[in-house]
Each structure stands twice: as C-alpha cells, then as structure tokens.
Amino acid sequence: MTMNSTLALAKESATPITAARSPLVWLVVLSAALVLVMLLSLAVGARSIPLPTVVDAIMNFDAANGDHAVVASRMVRTMAGLVVGLSLGLAGTSMQGVARNPLADPGILGINAGASLAVVAGIFFLGAASVSSYLWFAFIGSAVAAVVVYLVASLGRSGATPVKLALAGAAMAAGMGSLMSAMLVMSQSSLELFRSWQVGALAGKSWESIGAVLPFVLLGAVILLCTGRLLNTLALGDDMARGLGQRPGLGRAISALGIVLLCGSATALAGPIGFIGLVVPHLLRGLVGSDYRWLLPLSLIAAPVVLLLADVVGRVILLPGEVPAGILAAMMGAPVFIAVVRRGKKAEL
C-alpha cells in the first residue's frame, strides 16, 4: 500500500460516517432540551412556578411580583448549572480523546481530586472562603494532578497507556483524598467551610462567583472546541497522527490547558462533581458516532442538560429538603461506569 493510500485511509477513519445518525438533528434536539431543562430549573422547587409565569418573568420582570422574584433567585442556580455542566462535559470528552480511554473523566483521572486538595489546602492554611480565592488553588491543583498522573503512568517501557492512566488517576485520587481528610480532621473551621462546598451543589451561588470563573470557562471551551480534528487523528495512534501532520505532544499539552481551565473552574464554583464527564460522551457516541468535531460541541450542550436535570430532581425527591446535584450525578453515572468496565472491550478509543 502506498503512502498516499495509507493517508487517505487514515483520513477516512478519522472522519466517521455520521450522516445516518444526523448530528445536526441531535444538535437541534439537545439545544431544545437544554432550553426546556433551564425553564424547568427556574420553575421547579419548594415553590413551583407555572411555566407561563416563568416566561413572563424572563420577558417582563416585575420586582413586586413574588413569583417573578422566585424565578430571579433561581436564575443564578440555573446559570451555575449551565457553566459547570458544559465545563465538565467538554473536559471529559476531551480527556477521553487525549487518553484514548473510555474511562477517562476529571474525577476518575484525579483532576478533580487535585483541585479539591488544593482548595482544602487554601482553606486550611490561608483561610480561603470565596470562589474567587478557590479558583486559583483549583487551577494549581488540577494542573499538578494532571502532570503527576501522566508522569506516573509514563513509567515503564510502554509509556502512558490508557489503562495505566486510569490506574494512576485512581491511585492519585485516593491518596489526595487521604490528605484532605487529614487536614480537615485537624481544623473544625476548615471542615465547616469544606462541608458546604464538597458535596457538589449548585445552590447558594452568586453572580459574582459565576463572573469570577466565566472568563476561564470561555477560554478553556474555545481551546478544546478547536481540537476536534486533533483528537480524531490521535484516535489512530501517535505515529499515524504524525503522518497526518499533527504534533501529538503539543496537541496534548494544549488540550491539557483547556481541561485544567474547565475542571478548575467547575470545581471552584460547585465543588467536585463526578461522572458528568464520563456519562455524556458515551451517550453521545451512541447517537452521533465518534467524530470529535461533533462530540465536543454536542457535549457542551448535553452535559448541562444532564446536570440541571439532576439538580431539578434533587430539589423535589426529598421535600422539604433537597439532594445536591453532585450526589444525584454520581448515582446516575456509577451504573454507566460499571457498564463500561463490564463491557470487556479494549480500553481505548
């Protein structure tokens, strides 16, 4: 086989046939679902508001109207769910492509654990108590965790294989969890601050908190949305990617920057929420195939749908109390994780 025919075959493999799965149709469907779930997030809670009233509050807000005031108070929570959801979904999809591992997820590979440990250290040593201060600790922790996990997985002859990355991430998450527990046991005040943050809740956020992370979320999203073609070629292996003109090392570094920005921002804003970045890419592959040029933008829409739906269910499942979105996300994601592991296929994409 000639070099030209090999490259042609590689390009064909890197661009899966998705016409039958209609990714444009799913883009429209998921966008409509996101709008609907956002309206439900504004309407559902301890005090339910009719959808027409929600729309009226958005279009013609009246501060003297009690229902409108309730809708306005829920807008912050809904926007937080949108920002956190798109961050985790996009980061998880990109991580699975970079690692060529269907088990890759900001939680499973230790990225969220690194951010959480850094935030706890900031609370314990420096008294950090706001999202703007959590943010920088979360970035540092995410970056350090990503580097350490990759270095540990790179040990040995075969280098950083997908399976070794998953094992290194799981070990790192366990170790960081132990360090967090040690710091929290030694400080009651740190424990109180951490307790309200670590459950992964969308309630109690502010516009200032969202504004603090939004520039980094936008930057990270732009970076990762531009890596679709790179991830398609990485799926063919590093040698083939180089043959197609890509630079795998540089591409992974750029993707890692976007992942750290998104994971750090999401963790600083809402705490460590797991499994969103694992579940969403698998659901989307069943709908539109494995072309990352579609998976990345669709994950940006689908992940907030899943997270906001979990948050809405959590508000009504145990009235008059509520279950944090992070707990329900884990309940939904754990069966998917088990199904992927039990499938018994090679852990690569």
TrEMBL record:
Family: Belongs to the binding-protein-dependent transport system permease family. FecCD subfamily.
Name of the protein described by the UniProt record: Iron ABC transporter permease
Stretches that traverse the bilayer: 24-44, 78-95, 107-127, 134-153, 165-186, 207-231, 251-280, 292-317, 323-341
Species, as recorded: Arthrobacter psychrolactophilus
Key words of the record: Cell membrane, Membrane, Transmembrane, Transmembrane helix, Transport
Chief place where the protein resides: membrane
Molecular function as annotated in GO: transmembrane transporter activity
SUPFAM superfamilies to which the protein is assigned, alphabetical: ABC transporter involved in vitamin B12 uptake, BtuC
CDD domains (alphabetical): TM_ABC_iron-siderophores_like
